[in-house]
Design goal:
This protein is α+β, with helices and mostly antiparallel strands and 211 residues long. It is built from four helices and ten strands. The strands form two sheets. It has a seven-stranded mixed β-sheet with strand order 1-2-6-10-9-8-7, sandwiched between helices. A three-stranded mixed β-sheet has the order 4-3-5, with no helix packed on it. A hairpin with a 5-residue loop joins strand 8 and strand 9. Helix 2 crosses helix 4. The radius of gyration is 16 Å and the shape is globular. The protein starts with 6 loop residues before the first strand and ends with a helix. Keywords: Acyltransferase, Cytoplasm, Transferase. It comes from Nonomuraea recticatena. It catalyses: octanoyl-[ACP] + L-lysyl-[protein] = N(6)-octanoyl-L-lysyl-[protein] + holo-[ACP] + H(+). GO terms for molecular function: transferase activity.
Length: 211
Amino acid sequence: MRERSLTLIQDELVDYEKAMERMADLVAERQRDARPDTLWLLSHPSVFTVGRRTPLHHLPDPTRGIPVVETGRGGQLTYHGPGQLVGYLIVKLGDDEGIVDYVREVELRLVEALAALGLSAERRDTPPGSELLTGVWTVETGRKIVSIGMRQSRGVTSHGFALNVDGDLEPWHWAIPCGMPEADMTSLLRERGSADMDEVRAVVAKAFQAS
């Protein structure tokens, strides 16, 4: 992995659409070299977000009452809610790397963070001829604990990852996450029996060399 020192921004619960507006500003500043590479850690009120290629039958029943918002990131449907740590990465890529390279780096840094939290996890290789398989899974149970969806514009990344810490997992059952009907979504609380958001924030920031 490359050595990157990131500036850390931390917030608690931020409305998703307001976060998208701020992220767009951060990206524009990075494109102008007006700010350094940045990791923004936060959480969102309950919301489903969908990438541009999300099939309609993957969407939740609207009677569930959770809003569905279209987003410009890669990937398909994901769920955000309290008890989940979201990390937005505004990073200028090197001339010799692309967004897929950076997504792989993000996966490995999160595997490292989870190991420091006492949970063995792994990224998975994409089968030949298949769509890019992104995220992080637990080694012991094979459940998915991190979702990743990113994009790049003029060499700068945006969006990022969602790590389930101690939130309600039930909404994941109301839709098809990440284009994977077989995915069993999990959290640190489910896997370890305990989880502390402040600890997770600190460990994730360290894994990304963010301060």
